[in-house]
């Protein structure tokens, strides 16, 4: 084995080893601590990828600047989610919402999900990536239904059906890519290798390549939560445990990563329908649709599920426009959204614990009843709204700049979608944070440390992006074309 790839191997093997150990541990408390330790070790291993930097393919592993960025974000959020999950799930056990029997394999599934997402990011083979995302999907279905309630099981079933349709479309697109590559690069793994495909993509049949990307965009777009193939996402966020919603944020990024890999193959290839045009269309419609739907939500977790649809639409729009500025902004937006939205869901988890409900009508007046929690929620909503001085403002400003340069009409459409969402977010803020306290008044005994870590990072990136990170993301932007 190439020892330069040791960090990549550890990122994949640590969750697998932890999952095996966790199946042998019946105690939730011990399992929770082991889950935190394993997730922390995986995060440290992901930081080791920075010393590898673009070693290229080696067997089934493949490391470059693009997937390193995604792997670090995934591992960081996985670690902080493990910390949050310990107290959150324990509180549900104490109030009888969950039974220990239902949680026997909760931490095992947690680690399998992280491992599957990391495998999808770091594999050099298109078919392995598809299989890893399918594994992540199946594990998420089990985690969404862990409450065993009618609503949770219905959400898990909907997630399974819609995601299975999407992943089947993605498989068909992957098979088509194999078919167009096989006559050029030969049979077997060579026709599924990212490096081989990228080197010969210009010689592939353009018609079949176009059809393949349509299926890939629709298939993985289902997992990314793009309209109109998004319907699983609000139910999964609302009915599953809050930590599952956080991990689902990561799975959205992994699905978008898959789309980007295939876009890199076909962008600029003569005769192929421009992938960017299709991505801009789905992205813009997702932003506007989500902005409208936000006004009809009565459940705080469903509300921010539609916010995720909006932000993934912004990401698809940015990468669809393409070019150095838009690609840089799209990558930055994915990173900032993953950190901000997961941090926001940490706060929402605390709100649900103290109020005993996730309905807007029962969680008002937080700044009066729970000042620290309430004002943390205010800061998190300001951050997710893309207002200064947080990182999402920087990325959205750059995306709007690129859109104006590319097509002012597209920029106008994006602006409408952003303003719709901004208005809905302020209405949400007014309902939850201000006014007379409503609902239960339980004390907040959980730690806000994971929230503070995430908000500190997105604030730091809003004020100043380190030169090394800027150069890194600029290189990735050029890779994406």
Task: Please provide a written account of the structure.
The chain is mainly α. It is globular. The longest helix has 36 residues, at 150-185. It has helices at residues 6-23, 28-48, 65-94, 106-122, 126-144, 150-185, 194-200, 206-224, 232-239, 242-266, 275-293, 300-321, 324-355, 366-369, 371-384, 391-406, 408-433, 449-463, 467-480, and strands at 56-58, 61-63. It is 75% helix and 1% strand. It starts with 5 loop residues before the first helix and ends with a helix. The model has no long low-confidence stretch (mean pLDDT 87). The protein has a two-stranded antiparallel sheet with strand order 1-2. The protein has 3 domains: 1-124; 143-272, no CATH class; 274-481, no CATH class.
Basic shape: globular
Strand content: under 5%
Low-confidence stretches: none
Task: Kindly provide the radius of gyration, computed on alpha-carbon positions and rounded to a whole number of angstroms.
Answer: 21 Å
What's the pLDDT, averaged over the residues?
A: 87
Task: List the total number of helices.
Answer: 19
- By DSSP, the count of extended strands is 2
